[in-house]
Amino acid sequence: MPYVTPSHPAPPRRPRGRRSRFFAALAAAVTLATGAALLSPAAEARAAVAPAAALERVTDFGANPGALTMYVHRPAGLPAKAPVVVALHGCTQSAQLYADNSGLNTFADRHGFLVVYAETTTANNANKCFNWFQPGDTRRGQGEAASIRQMVAHATTAYGTDPARAQVTGLSAGGAMTAVMLAAYPEVFAAGAVVAGIPYGCGVDVVSAFSCMSPGADRTPAAWSQAVRDAHPGYAGPWPRVAIWHGDNDATVAPRNADELRDQWTAVHGLGQTPSRTSTLGPNNTRRSEYVTAGGRTAVEVNKVPGIGHGTPVAPGTGPQQCGATGTQHFIASICSSYWITTFFGLDGTTTEPPTEPPVDPPTEPAACWTASNYEHVRAGRATTTGGYAYAKGSGQNLGLYNTFVTRTLKESPPGHYTIATNSCP
User: Fold this and answer.
1) Would you state the pLDDT for residue 411?
2) Based on the number of CB atoms within 10 Å of its own CB, is 302 exposed (0-12), middle (13-18) or buried (19 or more)?
């Protein structure tokens, strides 16, 4: 039976008042068509061979209006005023599964920070997704968002963590919920990392949530940033720093969501959408684009991982830049995103202050080239569509009819700017 991908948003089972038969039928159809388990029996057996240390469950952390469960990974000898990272799993997953495979605990033990794992249940959502698309769970002071906020507050009182050094990250539905937390509680989180996620304010129900996932929503940076500002009216900053991670071949949450997230958070920070500097990471040449403030600090970064689909990039092994496991679905061998996210959060012992020298772009970074149908270019966020035609994002060049029959080769240089390639692509 096929598994449920970790973004499929089934409507919540928790009572919320008026419920249409249409949404209930849609949820049943989704569950029936895609199955109810993320792990195949073989993958479950592999995961059970060498389980990681069990997480510590916290049973009383507040009023918990979102009916979530709190777990923590507390390294031995956790220092006073330690940072805290909130980790949000994908659909059908659990806190323990995410902890065992994402690699976050490796760096918590190495650098001395607390990890809080929030977990939802089938009582909240049929597929154990965080309800990133339900207004009752995404607004400040309500539902799941409020429960996660209470977990951060409890970490400060119970474990002595530093309230000024709280971060949040998550995969897929957890990634979308990460964007929710950054928007609804910008004063709580210093930074966040969205892995294969969706901009805040995109979905408001099941139907719109699927559309947000794929092909994705194309809105202006101003419109996206206004959604964030509306989440906490009157708040003027400082705003959380944001790292975005997305696989180039993600067929579940369209890669264009990475660009829309970039548009959202660069606009919130008052920055443009042209990167201040670009580079490549790791042996797989993950493409990083950084958007830097006038003071020299990276406010937003986008990391596009080549050759992978929907999931958390991991790199199993014991090297300093390795982490995670691949024995379950949606933890993909490529690059250890948790290593780079920990570094972005400033939790690895390196300074997070602005560099003393101005950044220098790599001089010979190759351009990325893409050959696909106009339909796929739009779905992947390399083009937009108006009046039945496709247009290259950035340059605005007309690519021809928006369909699966017209094929174009596009060159991406600089990141996020696409032109029709002639003889300049490898």
Assistant:
1) 84
2) buried
What's the one-letter identity of residue 169? Answer: T
Q: What CA–CA distance (Å, rounded) separates 278 from 360? A: 9
pLDDT digits (tens, 9 = 90+) for 244-281: 999 999 999 999 999 999 999 999 999 999 999 999 99
Per the CB < 8 A criterion, the answer to whether 318 and 109 are in contact is: no
Which is nearest to 308 in space by CA: 284, 281, 275?
Answer: 284
Q: Following CA atoms 176, 179, 183, 187 in sequence, which dihedral angle do they give, to the nearest 10 degrees?
A: 130
Helices marked H in 160-272 — which ranges? 173-184, 206-213, 221-231, 256-268
Asked if the model's pLDDT at residue 148 lies above 70, the reply is yes
Residues near 133 by beta carbon (within 8 Å), at least 6 away in sequence = 9, 176, 202, 203, 204, 205, 206, 208, 209, 212
Q: How many beta carbons lie within 10 A of that of residue 50, not counting itself?
A: 9
Residue 207's closest CA among 136, 134, 256?
134
- What values do phi and psi take at 401, rounded to 5? -65, 140
- DSSP class of residue 284 equals T
- Average per-residue pLDDT for the chain: 85
6 within 8 A of 90, measured Cβ to Cβ: yes
pLDDT tens column, 57-98: 999 999 999 999 999 999 999 999 999 999 999 999 999 999
User: Distance between CA atoms of 336 and 60, rounded to whole angstroms?
Assistant: 33
Q: Residue 52: what pLDDT?
A: 62
Separation of alpha carbons 72 and 362, rounded Å = 40
Q: What is the pLDDT of residue 36?
A: 31
Q: What are the CA-CA distances from residue 180 to residues 100, 104, 148, 399 (Å)?
A: 24, 21, 11, 35
Q: Among all residues, which ones are annotated catalytic?
A: 172
For residue 365, give the nearest of 258, 259, 255, 285 by alpha carbon: 285
Q: What is the CA radius of gyration of the chain?
A: 21
DSSP-assigned letters across all residues of 84-147: EEEEE--TT--HHHHHHHH-HHHHHHHHT-EEEEEE--TTT-TT----TT-HHHHSTTSHHHHH
Residue found by looking up tokens 């969706």 in the block = 198
pTM above 0.85, yes or no: no
Tell me the CA distances in angstroms from 290 to 271, 287, 303, 344, one per residue in order: 11, 10, 9, 11
Q: Is 48 helix (H, G, I), strand (E, B) or coil?
A: helix
